[in-house]
Inverse folding.
């Protein structure tokens, strides 16, 4: 039976402690990556995959995010007066992008709790959860593939990426079985932030999930887990054990940037700027010269 259209949910209510003090008064999702806040790339990704209805879960410092996606009449009229049409188009683009809604997560009780806060808005639609600090390069398809797999397999779909054993303790890690497709695996279980020795594989869950609306019932009764937080991983574990539905993983081999981590954030800016037509031609030779001095 065809399902209702997908809605997108972008949790952006975490404390961002890894990026203090920048995140003291600003959510990490608003940190600029070249010239756009990280969360705008994520909204654009959802829109590119065909999702128009987007819900952002906001925490303290909510105004930053809401303002970014609102129109700013005084800025727009100044740019118009100056005839600065390119910048005007950029400014308008953010507010015209999609149908953007906001819901508050009163306290940062965990990613699972943030997603559960979307229940009232998402209702019985399937949902794509995109973490607001996790950027997937727009040249690499991931979300579109995940939505297609959700429809094909009638199951939950997560994004997986091979990570170095030294980094595995930072992620949710999946135990998997192969399928007929080399880029898709069946997820048989999941552990949140395991030690390298206990990790069931080197496949880490990255910040994209396509979930059935039933996930809300599961989250409602999910108890705090690792770190005292309500973990989305624990709800996924339950879905993985449900023989009627199951969880599949799309193995992503493209470019991903974790902008919530200082080092990855710096790398993301350098890589994205070096590839841009307006900045790359000057940045690349400068960077080579700079690298030679290291
Ligand atoms: P992270 O664990 O990366 O976010 O959560 P954090 O807790 O803000 O980061 P650090 O470790 O303290 O630096 C993954 C995603 O889930 C959101 C975050 O905003 C991020 O997009 N999140 C997390 C919430 O929306 N609410 C929460 O209670 C926890």
């Amino acid at each position: 039976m065809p399902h209702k259209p997908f809605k997108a949910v972008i949790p952006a209510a975490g404390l961002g402690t890894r990026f203090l003090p920048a995140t003291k008064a600003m959510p990490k999702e608003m940190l600029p990556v070249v010239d756009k806040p990280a969360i705008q790339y994520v909204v654009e990704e959802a829109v590119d995959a065909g999702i128009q209805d987007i819900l952002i879960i906001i925490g303290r410092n909510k105004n930053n995010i809401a303002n970014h996606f609102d129109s700013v009449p005084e800025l727009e009229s100044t740019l118009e007066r100056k005839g600065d049409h390119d910048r005007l188009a950029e400014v308008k683009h953010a507010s015209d992008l999609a149908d953007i809604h906001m819901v508050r997560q009163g306290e940062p009780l965990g990613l699972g709790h943030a997603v559960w806060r979307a229940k009232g808005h998402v209702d019985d639609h399937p949902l794509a959860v995109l973490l607001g600090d996790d950027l997937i390069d727009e040249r690499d398809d991931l979300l579109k593939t995940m939505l297609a797999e959700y429809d094909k397999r009638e199951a939950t779909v997560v994004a997986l990426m091979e990570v170095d054993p030294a980094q595995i303790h930072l992620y949710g890690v999946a135990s998997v079985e192969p399928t007929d497709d080399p880029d898709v695996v069946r997820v048989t279980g999941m552990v949140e932030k395991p030690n390298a020795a206990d990790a069931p594989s080197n496949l880490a869950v990255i910040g994209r999930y396509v979930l059935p609306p039933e996930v809300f019932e599961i989250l409602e009764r999910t108890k705090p887990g690792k770190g005292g937080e309500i973990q989305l991983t624990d709800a996924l574990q339950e879905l993985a054990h449900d023989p009627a539905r199951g969880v599949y993983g799309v193995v992503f081999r493209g470019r991903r940037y974790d902008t919530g981590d200082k080092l990855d954030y710096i790398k993301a800016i350098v890589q994205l700027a070096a590839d841009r037509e307006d900045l790359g031609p000057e940045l690349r030779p400068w960077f080579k010269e700079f690298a030679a001095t290291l």
